[in-house]
Amino acid sequence: MNPVLADLPTTIFTVMSGLARDLNAINLGQGFPDDPGPEDVRRRAAEAVLHGDNQYPPMMGLPELRRAIATHYAHHEDLDLDPMSEVMVTSGATEAIAASLFALIAPGDEVVLFAPLYDAYLPLVRRAGGIARIVPLQPPHFRLDAAALAEAFSDRTKLVILNNPLNPSATIFGREDLALLASFCTRHDVIAVCDEVWEHIVFDGARHIPLMVLPGMRDRTIKIGSAGKIFGLTGWKVGFVMAAAPLLRVVANAHQFLTFTTPPALQTAVAYGLSKEDASFAAMRARFARSRDRLTAGLSERGFRVLPSHGTYFLNVDLAPLGCDDDVAFCDTLVRQHGVAAIPISAFYPDASVRHLVRLCFAKADDVLDRALDRLSAVARPAAR
Fold first, then answer.
1. Same domain, 316 and 214
2. CB 319 within 8 A of CB 139
3. What local confidence, expressed as pLDDT, does residue 13 receive?
4. Residue 114: domain span
5. pLDDT, tens digit, for every residue of 228-273?
6. What is the spatial distance between Cα 248 and Cα 251, in angstroms, rounded to a whole number?
7. 124 plus 219 within the same structural domain
8. What band does 381 get if pLDDT is binned at 50, 70 and 90?
């Protein structure tokens, strides 16, 4: 067996979701909304299944969706993309990440990653033969640091993987951080793989800045997006890859031997969804912001210290004021004794160096959040006394 994959433990998301099911707990761990998603987008998919073509679509994606992606990002992020040579559709963003890494990493290439990190990155890098150089980011701000980047980057660096907005920290890299990273990429001739699936789910008037628009980055950036995140349809697994034509051709070579293509009905519906008016996306952000504020206020009232959440479906609770430095044990007790599932942030650090934060998902109905808060009432206050 290949040791990279055979020796992997069961992910914390699977463990906590399983416990939530077994114990009838409220699952604020795994990141998915509990509503079915926008009806008009779902209806468009259903109509396409019944009345459209259900055979293999083109490997690169339906032309109508690729055009819709290019138009969408021109409007929302000022990107000028050729839909036929710089846009590809994948079966989810994780497949897009895998195709990018398998296409670009040769054995022995070094890859810079930032922790906390999505748990797929490291095994995919290693499976491709890459050598990971992990840069830990420190709470509560999770900013990039020039000295740490200088230590990680070298002439052996081939790629850097950036998740922005950053899950699980719920922070956004602004222009200053992005300019710093871009300077290292251009200096060392590094390609940036940008996992930007949360780009539309940002709050308080923030606007996502893609690394691709910074000087020197247009031809060395692979930008990855997700319809599942944009529309809250996480089970659809429709992703986007955007890159200069020479890069995209190589990524497409890997994609054709992974999933090859993506259900055409879903592609048709996503093309429709991406063309919706700005008000639709603003309403989505406002809905999630209200849920974030509801959970934040409820946790604060119950004695928890909540870190600011600027994007994603998540917020983080700091366990340090409770005298706790073992987030795994805290989450285990939380789900078993109080009926609420959460995710320990140490799971996102390969060395488990940060152990005092816990991630909660607020993309839930009001009554679900309120019931979870009721169960959490007995957790923080007794420990704080």
1. no
2. no
3. 87
4. 52-276
5. 999 999 999 999 999 999 999 999 999 999 999 999 999 999 999 9
6. 5
7. yes
8. low
**Chain centre to alpha carbon of residue 95:** 13
User: β-strand 340-341 against 26-27: which pairing, if any?
Assistant: parallel
**Residue 24 is part of a domain; what is its CATH number?**
3.90.1150.10
Mean pLDDT calculated for residue range 184-197 = 98
Domain final residue, candidates 236, 255, 276: 276
Rounded mean pLDDT, 191-204? 98
- Tell me the pLDDT band of 382, cut-offs 50, 70 and 90: low
- Report, as an integer, the average pLDDT of 338-355: 96
What's the structural domain count of the chain?
Answer: 2
Q: Print burial letters for 256-280: b (CB count within 10 Å at least 16), e (below 16).
A: eeebebbbbbbbbbbbbbbeeeeee
Q: Residue 3 has what pLDDT?
A: 86
Which tens digits make up the pLDDT trace of 153-163?
Answer: 999 999 999 99
Residues in the chain: 385
Q: Looking at 4-13, 84-93, 192-201, 351-360, which range is the least confident one?
A: 4-13
- Looking at residue 161, which CATH number applies to its domain? 3.40.640.10
What mean pLDDT is reported for the chain?
Answer: 96
User: 9 falls in which pLDDT band (50, 70, 90)?
Assistant: confident
SS (H, E, C) the chain: CCHHHHCCCCCHHHHHHHHHHHHCCEECCCCCCCCCCCHHHHHHHHHHHHHCCCCCCCCCCCHHHHHHHHHHHHHHHCCCCCCCCCEEEECCHHHHHHHHHHHHCCCCCEEEEEECCCCCHHHHHHHCCCEEEEEECCCCCCCCCHHHHHHHCCCCEEEEEEECCECCCCECCCHHHHHHHHHHHHHHCCEEEEECCCCCCECCCCCCCCHHHCCCCCCCEEEEEEHHHHCCCCCCCCEEEECCHHHHHHHHHHHCCCCCCCCHHHHHHHHHHHCCCHHHHHHHHHHHHHHHHHHHHHHHHCCCEECCCCECCEEEEECHHHCCCCHHHHHHHHHHHCCEECEEHHHHCCCCCCCCEEEEECCCCHHHHHHHHHHHHHHHHHHHC
Q: Can you tell me the distance from the alpha carbon of 47 to that of 41, in angstroms, rounded to the nearest whole number?
A: 10
For 385, residues 6+ apart whose C-beta sits below 8 A from its C-beta are none
